[in-house]
Sequence to fold (322 residues):
Amino acid sequence: MVTINNIHQAREQISDIINETPIISSKQLSSICGNEVFLKGEHLQKTGSFKIRGATNKVKRAVNEGASLVTAASSGNHGQAVAYIANVLGVPATIVVPEDATVSKINAIKGYNGEIETCGTTSMERLPRAMELAELKEGVYIPPYDDPYIIAGQGTVGLEILEQLDDVDVVVVPIGGGGLISGVLTAIKNTKPHVKVIGVEPEIANDTYLSLEKGAITSISGTTTMADGLRTSQPGDLTFPIVQKYLDDIVLVSEEELRHALFFVLERMKQLIEPSSAVSVAAVMFDKLGVSDKNVACVISGGNVDVRKLGEIFPKQGLGVM
Ligand SMILES: *Cc1c(COP(=O)(O)O)cnc(C)c1O
Fold:
């Protein structure tokens, strides 16, 4: 299992690359939520998401061990992060993306000099291809969450929160494959164990929720949640035991709740965040946490969203301020 020392080491490894992101608060948000709410702004991170933390830790290690290429299977934030850090370190990156990947995402990867290879439409097709490409060229495949170096890198978000918010009571974290939350859990539970960590999933992408209920990794069959960073079908083999060991609670939010939270943060707080990040705000806004008058930190995991599509998320009427 990943240790707190691994996270401290990761922090040293990545400190020259990543930003220590700010904590953002709003009186109005706190008042709506009945708690003092603080947003940990990873939407302001390099490449627009926390994924650069784990990717930097892992790619640096691969390069130190002589990798001549890195590959990843993702058109999203992980693909951008791997392309970015590979470019900085001067090693080629091939990112395997689905045939229907959006142009804006492909352009972001190309902007970091990442090579694009298209393959199928599902991760079942992309993943083996990314691994195969790595093997063919003596490269290293960089997984999105189920890897000790990735988990340790993401855990640095937890260390920063503890330093920035001395008296934080509850930390709320979105869950996809579980790399972010398992890193944050390892950081927080081995530093200040009394701080509660609560995970959030969309109701329609509740694979970790179901897995915890069953006590075993359980998968779901496809989801249309607008939180596209949380669409993984099951938690990871490495991340799930960490979540099982430490997590205080897991809550679910509806697409409607997510939409409201996203709208509030965009319009009222002027922060360009992506739907996957808004689940943590929705959880506190819609009173899922069962706490009041506490200091609650919501991890805003990223801000990569196609601005042209953003308007489509909100109906012309019927979504006012609460
Ligand atoms: C990847 C991602 C997540 C989920 O992180 P996991 O480590 O897969 O749980 C959440 N939000 C954003 C913006 C992401 O890119």
In short: The beta strands are 23-25, 36-41, 70-73, 93-97, 115-118, 140-141, 170-174, 196-202, 249-253, 295-300. Residues 148-164 form the longest helix (17 residues). The mean pLDDT is 95. The pocket of pyridoxal-5'-phosphate is lined by residues 49, 51, 77, 145, 174-181, 229-230, 232, 274, 276-277, 301-302 (CB under 6 Å).
